[in-house]
Amino acid sequence: MCSRISNAMEKPYTCDLDSKALSQQNHLITHLMTHKKEKSFACDVCHKVFSQKSYLKSHLRTHSKEKPFVCDICNKAFSEKTNLQAHLLTHTKEKPYECGICSKAFSQLATLKRHLLIHTEEKPFECDVCNKIFSLKPNLQRHLRTHTNEKPFACDFCWNSNELVQSLNESISLVNFHDVAEVTALV
């Protein structure tokens, strides 16, 4: 269903428990630990439990907002090295992940997987209030605001609250346009 444009890496190591294929033996060993019943590394903040200390360490950055991985090109910071690596593809315009159905290419595997939902019409996210279903979690989250009337995006210029970030951006653009128009009228 999906293919990789660049040379695909072989994955000769397979997990006996869930058939996940991995490229290296040490990756298989790490993966097998996720199946362990005993998870001994707990987060002191939210009490989420992890099977490995490295996973806990990575998780703790979500609470501290620490972002030690910085892009050399645009200085955007990330909490995970893998997120920085995926981000770097936006600068190279490389899109190694291609949809096997429509040939659309993506820079990140997660984006391709999200795209594939368009073709399968799978909608795994359901509204608890009205039972409407969505293919993407952000669409469900946006929909839920229709039930709560929540408008989390406030404009610092006109004090309007907006349901969508796009509406906030439009509001800011209008303020900037009016400021330019006023200055032009004075000249």
UniProtKB/TrEMBL annotation:
GO terms for molecular function: DNA-binding transcription factor activity, RNA polymerase II-specific; RNA polymerase II cis-regulatory region sequence-specific DNA binding; zinc ion binding. It comes from the Eukaryota. Signal peptide: none annotated. It is found in: Nucleus. Its main location: nucleus. InterPro entries: Znf_C2H2_sf, Znf_C2H2_type, ZnFinger_BTB_dom_contain. Keywords: DNA-binding, Isopeptide bond, Metal-binding, Nucleus, Repeat, Transcription, Transcription regulation, Ubl conjugation, Zinc, Zinc-finger. It holds the Pfam family zf-C2H2. Residues 13-40, 41-68, 69-96, 97-124, 125-152 form the C2H2-type domain. SMART domains: ZnF_C2H2. This is Zinc finger protein 782.
